[in-house]
Amino acid sequence: MSVASPSPEAAKTTRVLIVDDDPDLRELISQFLSNNGFIVDTAAQARDMERHLTRGDIDIIVLDYMMPGEDGLSVCKRM
Prior knowledge:
This protein is α/β, with parallel strands linked by helices.
């Protein structure tokens, strides 16, 4: 599977939030996106995600479906 790369200008200004309770997976996704020019923030759970969202500068969220506490589906429904 290939991933389409954004234009260099778009990637430099696109802020992605990775929300996943698995630290290894969070780091892997974060590293990949950072290496491709995105600005990346991470959160381990929905509560941490809320803190990032209050800043108002997140463009895209990569959200784990199965997390302890509030799962990704509940987060999507709430948003």
